[in-house]
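sorry for the late reply, my laptop died twice this morning and i had to redo everyting from scratch. anyway the thing you sent over, i finally got around to it. pasting the sequence first so we're on the same page, its 427 residues, then the predicted structure underneath. double check i copied it right bc i was rushing
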Amino acid sequence: MSLEPFWIGGLIRCPCVKCKCLYFFGSEDVKAHLYKKSFMDNYFVWTSHGEIDGSDGIFHNVVVGEYSKSVGNNIQHPRYHEMVADAFGMHFDFETHESVEQLPNEEAKYFYEQLEATSRLLREGSMHSQLSVAVRLLSIKSDTNISQVGMDYFIGLMSELVDPTFNIPEDLYKVKRLVSKLGLSSMKIDCCEDGCMLYYKGDTDLESYKFCEKSRFKRLSSRKKAAVKSTHYLPLIHRLKRLYASMSSAPHMRWHYKNRRPPGVMCHPSDGEAWKNFYRTYPDYASEPRNVLLGLCADGFTPFSVSATPYSCWPIFITPYNLPPKMCMTSPYICLNCVIPGPRNPKSLIDVYLQPLIDELKQLWYDGVVTYDISTKQNFNLRANLMWIINDFSAYGMLPGWMTAGKLACPYCMKNGKEFTLRHGRK
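ok and here's the structure:
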């Protein structure tokens, strides 16, 4: 077996007559070379691609229906399997000589069952299903800012006018419950009005803040109380799984792997040196083309009138860069991850609000999550990594924690005679 690498950064050696395993190309380019020029002479054992000799001294060509088990057991070079699979345009089980299709895992199976149940047309020839009606109603509420009571009246009237067999949700609560079956939930997390902490993980049951000792709730009436301040978080993992659950996006998540450009040409982040260097540094991560590389964008805006009291709100967006250029920067694939409430700029305390995102990114990097890819009908371990942040200069100083302006007077530190620091209480 050759001691030299047979693949670098996702590129493989080309065994055609002209290249003779000296040059590296993408799998599609290698396939084109072999179609036009054929294999180099006497290349019966693919030693430059990780193949080793059989114990019986017999060499085998890798063709459909014939496979050397010595290659199948060569676990040091798992990319060899991908090269063969790409060449034949199929997913191949090297033990049984058959293409592999797997059943969805339990989570994916439940999602597809719920989606099928709610997507049946209301009647034959209708343009709408129960799910599409529910989504449309929520969209109307959001766009027109109708109150919940108003939506209940509107949905009630609509239910009386249509055929009862259509089974349209009776009120806004049931509309939300129906849409929630898609699994794209959101989390409302209480937080300190000064940005000291979140009521998150082990702190969810606290009634007052650990650092500034302010109350978590404000009294609305003798019986009702509400959180002083809350942030909304939309889990990232569920949204990445949904990209592989739909045929409209799943096949495109490997675009960066199948459409490489020659050196000097750049039309996608995967053509850049940062992407290539990351793949060279982490070859195990690069060996699975369905792993996702992400970009993060954050900026503040004023949601209310400029003449009103200043209010700075900060949305955080996540973009998967596996997709082709015409898709990855369009609104369906730019995920709103969380909304940092105002009224003040969070400045260096922005890391407090990003704790749920950081936890998910750690899980995606170290452990991964089991995901079903509907385009290949296979379960795989999905991993993801945050590659870039795209911001203006003020936000660029906030996210790495370099900004030190705008310190708040913390009652906890003042009472204990301590000098205020932006990381107080979080060592």
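Residues 130-144 form the longest helix (15 residues).
thats about all i looked at so far, will dig more tmrw
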